[in-house]
Write the structure tokens for this entry.
Amino acid sequence: MGRSLAQKIFEEHLVSGSLEPGSDLAIRIDQTLTQDSTGTMAYLQLEAMNVDQVKTDFSIAYVDHNMLQQGFENADDHKYIQTVAKKHGVHYSRPGNGICHQVHLERYAKPGGTLLGSDSHTPTAGGIGMIAIGAGGLDVAAAMGGQPYTIPAPNVMAVELTGQLSAFTTAKDVILEVLRRLTVKGGVGRILEYIGDGVQSLSVPERATITNMGAELGATTSIFPSDHRTRSFLKAQGREADWVELLPDADAQYAERIVVDLSGIEPLAAQPHSPDAVDSVANIGSIKVDQVAIGSCTNSSYQDLMRVAAILKGKTVHEDVSLVLSPGSKQVLSMLAANGALADLIQAGARILESGCGPCIGMGQAPATDAISLRTFNRNFKGRCGTDSASVYLVSPETAAVSALSGVLTDPREWGVPIAVAEPEQFPAEDNLVVPPAAPDDDVQVVRGPNIKEFPLNTDLPEQWEGVVLLKVGDNITTDDIMPSNAKLLPFRSNIPHLSEFCFAPVDAEFPRRAKQAGGGFIIGGDNYGQGSSREHAALVPLYLGIKAVVAKSFARIHRANLINSGIVPLEFEQPDDYEWLKEGDAIVVESLHEAVQSGDPIAVRVPNRDGQFMVRCALSPREQQMIMAGGRINVIRQSQKGDA
Ligand code: MIC
Ligand code: SF4
């Protein structure tokens, strides 16, 4: 039977388990990446695991998120990451070098390899033919320590691309079309493998825009073949030696298949406040625009930004629009500077930010009250931009640029003459902002500022729990809802006590007070609970507040793993109707917890104040059971170290 591309790479890296859907799959990890907002925690965990030198082929720590230095906190975190990386064999990408995913694609991603990153958009590297997966910091730390990464074996879905994009329709519109069809939970438990004749019409950076936003589908990852286009990209990066041809077998079997005709795609936009609320730009109409933000790990390629520059050249941004540009990498920004395009952008009124995540994670450039912001980014969750009342639309760079000039949402096809930007034959490939690690026996002092606090640890699972329902939330709750991030909170990613005061702030600002007063309790969630960012703070902060379990209709993949890593039990409703019945303030008693965790059989949960009960299930793999019983993954690792001693 023919094999898919994903299957080939998994088989090559298989440590244990199988690819049979429903079973666990443990793979060897070749490369890891961290970024600074999840990285401090990941390296604290690496230290707690007593890992001296990383065991991967290549590990790198990027600094790209917490770039504003309003106080000492972010600079302290950078220093900690730089020194801890140097000590343990990790490369360090300095602030200014660019966004982890963009830089990794340019300089380090390799077809056929595996990459684990403490950021949900790690699958960007799938654009080059790599199995690249986002995970919590603890899982990445364990991979640095040489442990395999375990996931439930996903189904591989073929996304067959036919035809070719027409002028002014882009890779961004392709992934928005996939999101429109599959929704933000349509990728859960799946890998999207792009196949078909249309694939070769897309360059590597275009493919990476598509795999980047596979994260918004909840997919485990997305992948493109490694073909002649991959070879040209790697050659232009001075890395032709990293190229291998990697294609699915002609008779590859896929669990599911969808067909996307590229020729039929038109300019699209995701409307507030979800990446799957997609409609065509033409249908949405000429709404007035207050802000346009271009860049991010989704749309920062040389060609993306050159097309924007070509549209803006010799023009002026509309007087009511603030246009900000956050380029994804030093490489792209320096190319724009060298060929004059940067001058065209500045002259037109673009406000140029440093290479980093910037407004995408609310690190500055929050829009005005009730503003409409068009962004080439990947997430438009309510409040993420830093302004609760703002409405964010996700669009392509072309739609963004044309609208920045007109002041209203504009279909870029109105621009008329197509813009051709040739793929560069050579990129300036200098890695001078990447600091190599020290030699293993060098004496490196790890610098810890006062902002770096200990992370909470759980205790063994008790046999019985009682507590109240502290909060009931709806479907598709994001980790931005659970533990928001913005310019004010990001500096505290290594300070769980401080962050805990803002847990669930966008949903219910009173939650932390109630949780503390009750000494902890339970959260009730709907479908796809915990979608979005990989931040394990969305598990560690509730743990700190005494949350014992989350009972939900279903969980998003990375967040479920983060809960288990922290020893918080993810319980699923047996009957989704019971979700409707439960109320905030209900008392809950869970008995025979050990049996429930170890057998996976449904158990009854009593609700004494309403004289009722409901059934939940705790379907865990043996490995997950062990972590829950021990109160989290760090405890399991510590116990095994004691056993080894
Ligand atoms: C995001 O896009 O939400 C982030 C910020 O990059 C997160 C990581 C984080 O919360 O630090 C992600 O995508 O995992
Ligand atoms: Fe940074 Fe935004 Fe990409 Fe997250 S999605 S890595 S915040 S640019």
Residues 319 and 407 are 8 Å apart (CA to CA). The pocket of alpha-methylisocitric acid (ligand 1) is lined by residues 37-38, 65, 119-121, 134, 361, 485, 533-535 (CB under 6 Å). The mean pLDDT is 96.
